[in-house]
Amino acid sequence: MNENLERRTRILIAAKDTFAKEGFRNAEVKTIAQIAGVGKATIYKHFDSKDHLLLTIVEENFKAMRDIGIATLIGNGRPLERFEKTCLAIAHFLDTDKEFSLVVVKEAGEIMTEIESLYTLVMEENKPFSDAFINALKDEKLIPNIPNNIVLEIMMNLAIGIVYSWTLSGTEPLSNKVTELFGLWKEQNALAKGINNSKQD
To answer: What are the chain's domains?
Structure first.
């Protein structure tokens, strides 16, 4: 690994750990530097500010979740099964990172606009992939036939709301909530199919 890249990675790991333990506002750059084994000046060579450090960590988390999503959505199985597997994989990722998620939700209000911009950018970069998957859900009659951008917005707002609620008050793993919600979805689909079949008879 390139020395600069290795140093940058150490800084980000140290910053994430420090933010999770001490909170974003209380965390000091000198503490991050000590944990990373570098000088403060080295941190500022890579990152303009503490805000920039946080934004970079958030961006990398978004990309990690995107990569998890792509890896689990591609493959065999029905669309709903793959979607559940994907959501569970992302939930497990967040379950291991709850303290940092709490810091972002509670303390990053001043830079939330930038965080939302990063999120939107990651989503836009992967629009062809999300369109293909949403179309597969529509083909199976699992979601209404409404424009894909609206479907994606609804799904993302639902996901953000669930994560936000879990971060602030959830005591059980997020993956449990995902399993519960998909169970309800499957029950409703089975019920709808039963009603349609009885109408055809």
So the answer is: 1-47 (1.10.10.60), 50-200 (1.10.357.10)
